[in-house]
């Protein structure tokens, strides 16, 4: 006969043989003169299923007991088995490998000489289609920016970033903050690089001055961010909308082929309105500089970029391509259709001098990452790398 083991809460006494038996937990009040027995006195064991307790040889069975008598050693063994099972589950979860999403690609060199200008393409295409894609990429290799010097920027007639100020706002000049000498040298190198690319100009008598916030990269270099909080508080909000991510992802999934592209230093391809250039001034140990292009950290920068993308691609968005700020995705059902869509997109990029980053582009693949999701013909999946990051959180 099987009995359900409930809560072992107290030890009630000993048998003649000296073995200890346990009394199941009861909700009845203790008799007068006896101290109440609580679950905290020994602990609680709650199995997840009904078990048949072992028969204890020589143990007394009492009529007022609702369960079978067990020894203290057997109760400890039962606890040990539960703890061992839980430990094995945790170890298995820890050792489980979350493989990142990886689409098979190959590098294609678009440079005919000794130089190296490589882009990634999918390996699932048939040979004639692959050759047509390579020919297309070689024809339009000027749409890629291999360095800052390759960026000419969008025309001011198409878009420019403005910094209007709310009435009554007074300019704020931040004082130079302290910085470690080795970090100052890295900042100097980044400033020199951007100055040589034509992104910066020397500021002589600025009214607004901000500090640099260095953000270390994985490769040891530094991302130069500017503390524009004072300037952003004084600027009104641009209400140009960004696309709804869920709608954009839903509209991309279920297609057969994809090409994922990313703007090269996207924000810096949009120029500042000439009258607002000095408002972007930042201070360094090496002098004060201001941005001639739209800088990261400025209020309404994303809205300005999205406005430019809509102006350039409004007639093919939600059809051949999807655009979210500086992310562009070409999609199609067939390989031939995909080449047609890419040619149309490349022609538009060349016409308006919008450059894309070759190291972040992948062409003609069956799946890929889009705004934190994996999209493919099967639908939408969660990015395994994000799941792994959550599981490895301390």
**Mean pLDDT score, rounded?**
80
Q: Helical stretch count?
A: 8
Envelope shape: globular
Specify the structural class. Answer: alpha+beta
Spatial ordering of strands, largest sheet: 3-4-13-8-12-11
Percentage of residues in DSSP E strands: 15-25%
* Helix proportion range: 25-40%
The radius of gyration is 34 Å
Uncertain runs: 1-51, 54-66
Largest sheet: 6 strands, mixed
Number of β-strand runs: 16
SSE order, as H and E? EEHEEHHEEEHHEEEHEEHEEEEH
Distance between the termini: 46 Å
How is the secondary structure organized here?
Elements: E1 8-14, E2 20-24, H1 72-95, E3 105-109, E4 118-122, H2 127-139, H3 181-196, E5 200-202, E6 210-216, E7 222-226, H4 229-233, H5 245-252, E8 257-262, E9 282-284, E10 287-291, H6 301-313, E11 321-324, E12 327-332, H7 335-352, E13 362-365, E14 367-370, E15 373-376, E16 379-382, H8 384-391
Parallel strand pairs: 4-13, 6-9
Antiparallel strand pairs: 1-2, 3-4, 5-10, 6-7, 8-12, 8-13, 9-10, 11-12, 14-15, 15-16
């Amino acid at each position: 006969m099987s009995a359900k083991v409930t809560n072992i809460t107290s030890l009630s006494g000993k048998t003649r043989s000296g073995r200890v038996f346990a009394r199941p937990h009861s909700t009845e009040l203790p008799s007068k003169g006896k101290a109440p027995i609580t679950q905290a006195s020994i602990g609680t064991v709650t199995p997840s299923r009904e078990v048949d307790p072992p028969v204890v040889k020589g143990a007394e069975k009492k009529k007022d007991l609702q369960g079978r008598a067990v020894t203290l050693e057997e109760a400890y063994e039962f606890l040990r088995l539960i703890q061992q099972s839980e430990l094995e589950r945790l170890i298995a979860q820890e050792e489980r490998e979350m493989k990142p999403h990886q689409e098979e690609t190959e590098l294609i060199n678009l440079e005919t000489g000794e130089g190296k200008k490589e882009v990634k393409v999918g390996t699932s295409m048939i040979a004639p289609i692959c050759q047509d894609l390579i020919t297309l990429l070689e024809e339009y290799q000027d749409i890629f920016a291999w360095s800052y010097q390759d960026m000419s920027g969008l025309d001011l007639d198409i878009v420019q970033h403005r910094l209007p100020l709310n009435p009554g706002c007074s300019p704020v000049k931040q004082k130079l903050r302290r910085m470690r000498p080795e970090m100052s040298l890295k900042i100097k190198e980044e400033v020199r690089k951007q100055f040589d690319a034509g992104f910066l100009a020397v500021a002589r008598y600025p009214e607004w001055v901000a500090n640099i916030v260095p953000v270390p990269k994985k490769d040891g270099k530094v991302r130069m961010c500017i503390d524009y909080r004072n300037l952003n508080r004084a600027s009104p909000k641009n209400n140009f909308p960004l696309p709804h991510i869920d709608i954009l992802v839903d509209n991309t999934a279920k297609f057969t082929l994809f090409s994922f592209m990313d703007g090269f230093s996207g924000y810096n391809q949009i120029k500042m309105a000439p009258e607002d250039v000095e408002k972007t001034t930042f201070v360094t140990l090496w002098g004060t500089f201001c941005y001639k292009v739209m800088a990261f950290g400025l209020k309404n920068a994303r809205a300005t970029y999205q406005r430019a993308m809509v102006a350039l691609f409004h007639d093919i968005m939600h059809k051949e391509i999807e655009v979210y700020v500086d992310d562009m995705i070409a999609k199609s059902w067939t390989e031939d259709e995909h080449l047609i869509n890419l040619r149309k997109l490349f022609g538009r990029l060349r016409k308006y001098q919008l450059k894309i980053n070759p190291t972040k582009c992948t062409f003609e693949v069956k799946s890929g990452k889009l705004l934190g999701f994996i999209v493919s013909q099967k639908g939408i999946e969660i990015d395994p790398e994000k799941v792994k990051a959550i599981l490895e959180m301390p």
